[in-house]
UniProtKB/TrEMBL annotation:
Record's protein name: CoA-binding domain-containing protein
Start and end residues of each CoA-binding domain: 19-113
Membrane-spanning ranges: none
Record Pfam families: CoA_binding_2
Top-rank taxon: Bacteria
Alphabetical list of Gene3D superfamilies matching this protein: NAD(P)-binding Rossmann-like Domain (3.40.50.720)
Length: 163
């Protein structure tokens, strides 16, 4: 979806900080054991540089970074506070349904992921929703760690610079 057709307004920076400060556990849906994948990089950061309990969800994996991987959100041993999603656009409605079924408080769609119908339905059900933002970048931004990944530009964006 292009920027021009976006109508949904996401939470402000103070609201995202409030979400992250109230979060104790994060489930990464679409977690990968492939170090080249963004979900792996985010998982590595969250496990090493954040206070969160991190759980991995992927029906095709059994272990990532020494942690068990669960086939679905319903299989987790806890109700995660935040569901961080690394799935294709067409999978997002199903992930929302699973998030609502387990009772998580926040649905967080990673950089490049935007689904307005999902956002509206999630908010109507009482969830916090964040789209097109990275949990790792937001956590690092609020806690002074952006330089750890070379993101010390002062500008947070998933877009390429226009010429």
């Amino acid at each position: 979806m292009s920027e021009a057709t976006r109508t949904w307004q996401g939470p402000s920076a103070p609201e995202r900080l409030r979400i992250l400060r109230s979060t104790r556990s994060i489930a990464i849906v679409g977690a990968s054991s492939n170090p080249a994948r963004a979900s792996y990089f985010v998982a590595t950061y969250l496990l090493s540089s954040s206070p969160y309990d991190v759980y991995f969800v992927n029906p095709r994996a059994t272990e990532i970074l020494g942690h068990p991987v669960y086939p679905s959100l319903a299989d987790l041993p806890v109700v995660p506070d935040l569901v961080d999603v690394f799935r294709r656009h067409e999978d997002l409605p199903t992930v929302l349904d699973e998030t609502l079924a387990v009772g998580a408080r926040t649905l967080w769609l990673q950089l490049g992921s935007w689904h307005e119908d999902v956002a509206h339905k999630a908010e109507a059900a009482g969830l916090n929703v964040v789209m097109d933002r990275c949990v790792k970048i937001e956590h690092a931004r609020f806690h002074g760690g952006l330089h750890l990944a070379g993101f010390d530009t002062g500008v947070i964006s998933s877009r390429r610079a226009e010429r």
